[in-house]
Amino acid sequence: MNWLDTDPALGAAGWPHGWTTAGGPDFRADPRGPDMAAGMETLRTAAGLRAVAWVHQVHGGCVLRAGAPGLAGDADALWTDVPGLAVVGRGADCPLVLVGGSRGDGAAVWGFAHASWRSTVAGITASLMKDMVATGLRAATVRALVCPSAGPCCYEVGDDVRAAALAALGGAATTYFTRRGERWLLDLWAANAAQLVAAGVRHDAITFTGLCTICGGDRYPSHRRCGDGAGRFAAFIADARTP
Ligand SMILES: [Zn+2]
Predict the structure, then answer these.
(1) pTM score
(2) CA of 217 to the centre of ligand 1 (A)
(3) What spacing in Å lies between the alpha carbon of 177 and ligand 1's midpoint?
(4) Which residues surround ligand 1, an ion (CB under 5 A)?
(5) Which of 58, 110, 212, 235 is buried most deeply by CB count within 10 Å?
């Protein structure tokens, strides 16, 4: 499928996954409505997935478990252990972090975080790991991928965002910010990788696509580059494709 990209490392680790491009369905619709369900069905068919689950993303810190296909509720992270169920996140500049690992009994657990700056400051990736580990996930088995998103080269924020990050994440958060004129460049990739590592994920098990949606061309929609008319793309991870 020419509107579906994948990462060789995560694929080699055995995780069916991918993310769509600007040429794929537009995932901008109301996540509770029929247009979103139709876009999800197009993705499910194209990617060879048995079933898909998604959330109404609200830029918060809430994590949900998907127990069935369809809309799981309001959250910015979603995980599951239901065989054949893919979890799908949507974004335009916000990093989507895909996570897959196994329990002590060998059963797979997989999920994603939608790591906007607000959700990152709320600890969304840390909370996703906490919930998955609480169900038996061994962090040392985790493979993770940071999908194309606003990179540290371009993602400008103001003093308010930096102050919120330092207040919530502590002094270590200063390393995620670089001065650019009157503004700051925020490295959301590093900020979320740090949440994975703090949860026990090996740093060398985290893959960064390194593709910036703002300066990296028009392959992916970007809210910062295209404005309010920007589309949304989607990323998924699952334990298996259809037989
Ligand atoms: Zn950039």
Answers:
(1) 0.97
(2) 9
(3) 15
(4) 151, 153-154, 212, 214-215
(5) 110
